[in-house]
């Protein structure tokens, strides 16, 4: 299976809607996504990503064998953190556990470090999401600690974990 990240295309909206209309996926993401997630929601998101500042937002479709199966993005932070960026991602449930997201994370980190002045990329998965933590570890991220009682998801206070990858380590 050939895994690649590529710029979004408006025609990807249908695949995006299918992926994000899965509660299992949304349960591991931050709040704010509509459910069900419609093709129009996908078009709106893709349009926003395509028009975003290219030096602050690095957003890509994740593909396997040329089919869009997920999303990955690195988002520059502000002020004293302007050379730090947050990583976020998700993949269609039928592709979980196949090493696809690890490969996509490696690709986007290489791209961001090579094409920008970002020196640190971090991710904050929910502590109970061991699969996402494993993706980061396999991609070379270092575990920095647990952010205790750091979020409220579905009315439940949960911990998150902090992982980072430095440019000099990549």
Describe the structure.
This protein is 29% helix and 34% strand. It has 5 helices and 7 strands. Helix 1 packs across helix 3 (39-51). It is globular. Strands 1-2-3-4-5-7-6 form a 7-stranded mixed β-sheet, with helices on both faces. The mean pLDDT is 96. By secondary structure, it is of the alpha+beta class. Strand 3 (67-76) and strand 4 (84-91) form a beta hairpin. It has a domain at 3-120: Aminopeptidase. InterPro entries: Acyl_CoA_acyltransferase, GNAT_dom. Keywords: Transferase. It comes from Parablautia intestinalis. Residues 3-167 form the N-acetyltransferase domain. GO terms for molecular function: acyltransferase activity, transferring groups other than amino-acyl groups.
Brief rundown of the structure:
With 170 residues, the protein is an alpha+beta fold. The chain contains 5 helices and 7 strands.
Q: Assign the structural class, choosing from mainly alpha, mainly beta, alpha/beta, alpha+beta, or little secondary structure.
A: alpha+beta
How many β-strand stretches? Answer: 7
Strand order of the largest sheet: 1-2-3-4-5-7-6
Low-confidence regions: none
- How would a textbook summarize the main sheet? 7 strands, mixed
Mind telling me the C-alpha Rg?
15 Å
Named at the architecture level, the CATH assignment of the domain at 3-120 is 3-Layer(aba) Sandwich
**At the third CATH level, what is the topology name of the domain at 3-120?**
Aminopeptidase
Considering DSSP H and I runs of 4 or more, what fraction of the residues is helical?
A: 25-40%
CATH class label of the domain at 3-120: Alpha Beta
Percentage beta strand: 25-35%
**Sequence of secondary-structure elements:** EHHHEEEHEHEE
Count of alpha/pi helices: 5
- Overall pLDDT score: 96
**Terminus-to-terminus distance:** 24 Å
GO molecular function: acyltransferase activity, transferring groups other than amino-acyl groups
Domain N-acetyltransferase: 3-167
Keywords: Transferase
Pfam family, one: Acetyltransf_3
